[in-house]
């Protein structure tokens, strides 16, 4: 048993296991839902996946003919995403950047931020900055689409959650606790460092948002049109929704 713990940056080591961690997700269903939701707006094909992880969504949208730019805060996640796209012979513009202030020379028809990306924003000021930055990156009539985990999901699934994943090449132990007062969920991933006297620990903190919270920061944004849906039914969200799917459109 290791007697020393070394704290490392989020996804510094977990990036190598991220696709296994997310293997319960049916990405094809997500792709179908997103394309169906934005279809009435007839958007163009220049898309930005902000907080893209290991690039799974960006790769699938690229196969649908979208011209993808994909950004993540973790250099380790981006490195894996680039390798995956290369294996698929896909041209995707990957870069390291923060969803709050990422900027480049392009303007986009669609921006996506899916699989809990926004839940990594922990305060209202940064949420507002994300909204403003997305607005500036979009073309006129462009669409921002993101999802948000609610306290109901966290209380149902992540109070005292524990998971152990091991293969011959390594693995992790995950412990997640959710505090309903602060609405913060902390996941600690304990990873074998290869040194019997040392283990590495990644701490991931996310904030759950009530429907009323999301309505508030959408209303305070520069977007004049938005919809908040239940991601299971794709109908109007309710306080009983565990995950919210939000669409916003940049209009005159």
Q: Which segments are poorly predicted (pLDDT under 50) over 5 or more consecutive residues?
A: none
* Succession of helices and strands: EHHEHEHEEHEHEEEEHEE
Task: Count helical runs.
Answer: 7
Query: Main β-sheet, in a few words?
Result: 7 strands, mixed
- Classified by CATH, the class of the largest domain is Alpha Beta
The value of Rg in angstroms is 18 Å
The CATH architecture of the largest domain can be named as 3-Layer(aba) Sandwich
- Beta content comes to 35-45%
End-to-end distance, in Å? 61 Å
Annotated CATH homologous superfamily of the largest domain: Vaccinia Virus protein VP39
Spatial order of the strands in the main sheet? 4-3-2-5-6-12-11
CATH topology of the largest domain: Rossmann fold
Averaged pLDDT: 93
Helix content: 25-40%
How many beta strands in the DSSP annotation?
12
Structural class: alpha/beta
Q: What general form does the structure show?
A: globular
- The count of domains is 2
